[in-house]
Each structure stands twice: as structure tokens, then as C-alpha cells.
Amino acid sequence: MNVQEALTLLKNKGYKHTGKREDIISFFSSENRYRTAKDLLNYMEPNYQGISFDTIYRNLHLFHEVGILETTELNGEKHFRMKCDHQHHHHFICKDCGITKEIHKCPMDEIEEELKSFAIDSHKFEIYGLCPACQ
Amino acid sequence: MNVQEALTLLKNKGYKHTGKREDIISFFSSENRYRTAKDLLNYMEPNYQGISFDTIYRNLHLFHEVGILETTELNGEKHFRMKCDHQHHHHFICKDCGITKEIHKCPMDEIEEELKSFAIDSHKFEIYGLCPACQ
DNA sequence: TTACAAATCGTAATGATTACGATAAAATAA
DNA sequence: TTATTTTATCGTAATCATTACGATTTGTAA
């Protein structure tokens, strides 16, 4: 998802356009990386000195709720990245820098059979390690 | 892993046998379920009134470190269960009760090819939903 | 049984996240 | 443009899981 699509989505859902929101979206759209609330705060602080935690977390959750961001937990902290809106896939995630690489093999197809009596509502398949740059 | 194996493992590694440790191990060995630190505390409290957080968390981490427990994160909380020591597999995890069901299809085999330049050190494949009893 | 290391207690500190009343800013209508 | 309303943000305190630590107790091995 790009910046413009995200802004339009927000507007369509009745949320207001603010400079902070635009900058938050730019921050995430610039890279295929999982980042923390603190990473975002560090990025915002120079331009918006005194920005509140409330603003950071409220927007992260809002963006996740409306589908602008996706989230995962890495070592006890929530991490966020721009939502991938093309075909279903999974990610390799670098433990150091959070960069992601798409994995286009999804194991679920062959598994639903095994779980007939369970009500599946989501699954997580992630691979962790170091990307070439961080090795 | 059963209670006896776990106690022997602890002893072999030079850790002391205490009533609390035995009870913690019993707690986990009784079910195929992910439980939180708080679940464990609730279980221990009646028998050991005033048991310290330190004891709960220290032992959870120790047991994870020596391979008695395995761990995952569900809604921002660490969950623990008895380590499965037989063949590599994954789990379906019930979001309500934490019960697990083994999944014997591992997607990794077919994926390493795609990630030649990455240093893979672990992967997580979990399916979430409701077990038959919780539906 | 003694002595020492390890385990536990009681409680405070930490760190991420959430919450909230007061204020400011964006959108909408007049 | 101005007024009005609604949402966003600030500043800061509260919460919740987890970690840390000095003092005390308990296993264990000599």
C-alpha cells in the first residue's frame, strides 16, 4: 500500500487528515520493515517536538484497524509494517533490522484437512534470522 | 516430556530439587496447553501462599533455557507449555483455552531454496482459532 | 551438622502500552 | 469567512507484565 492509498482509505472511513498521520504513513511506506512504536517516535520527534505517546499508539492501532498496517510481535514488542495488499504470502523477518522478504509458499492449503473440527481464524508463519546485510 | 524426565534433566544440570519446581513441572505436564505466568501463579498460590513473582518467572525462564518448556507469545503475553521432544512439528493453538493440536506438516523444507542468502535461525508456524470444546 | 551455594521472599523498579481530562486543530455548514 | 462540531493531540498518570535485588531460607554434599 502506498501513501496516497492509505490517506484515501483514512478519509473514506471518516478520519481526519493531519500532518502527523501523513508523516507516520510515509515512515512506514518507505521500507519493507517491521518497526516499533519507539522507532516511530524517534522518527517523529525532530519534526514534532513533544509529540505524545497517545498520538503514536492511537494512530498505530487505528492504522492497523483500518488495514494500513500489519503487525507482529518480536521479542515482546509489537512491530508494525505497511500492509501488503497483493496476494497472500508470508515473511522472512530479519531479527536485527526487521527487514522482510516475501515467502510465496503457504502451508495452510494442505493443512485444513487435518483440522476439520477446529475453527481456524488465523495463522502465522514467519521465518527469523539475519538478512544478507546484517550477517 | 514427563515429570520424571524433567526432574532428572534439572538435576543433571546441577539445579536443585524443590517442591515448588516439582509442582511447576506437574502443572505443565498435565496438559497440552499454553499457560501464562499468571495461570501458574494461580495454580501455585493455594499450596504456597505468598510465593514470589521472582520464583515464578525465574523458574519459567530456567525451564525454558534447559529445554523443559517451550514458549510463544499470544496477545502480548508469554505463554509456556511442556516441551515436545518427539519429531519436529507445529501447533494449532486455541485462542481461548490455549490447548494445542499437533500439525505434522512443516513448510520449511520447501522454502530453504528461496532463502539461500539469508541466515535462517528459526521459524514459527502457528494456527489460531477455537478448539471443538471452545466453539 | 555444618557450611556453602542456590532458591525463594518481599517488594521495588522497569518498560511498553493504555487511559484521560484539557486543549488544539480539522472538517463542515452557514 | 466564520461559527460549530467533531476528532486529534498533548501532557501526564495509570496499568500490566516482567525483571531486579538485598535479605533470608533451604538443599546438598562434605
From TrEMBL, chains A, B:
The keyword Transcription applies. It comes from the Bacteria. It is found in: Cytoplasm. InterPro entries: FUR, Fur_C, WH-like_DNA-bd_sf, WH_DNA-bd_sf. Signal peptide: none annotated. Pfam families: FUR (PF01475). The keyword DNA-binding applies. Belongs to the Fur family. This is Fur family zinc uptake transcriptional regulator. It comes from Aquibacillus albus.
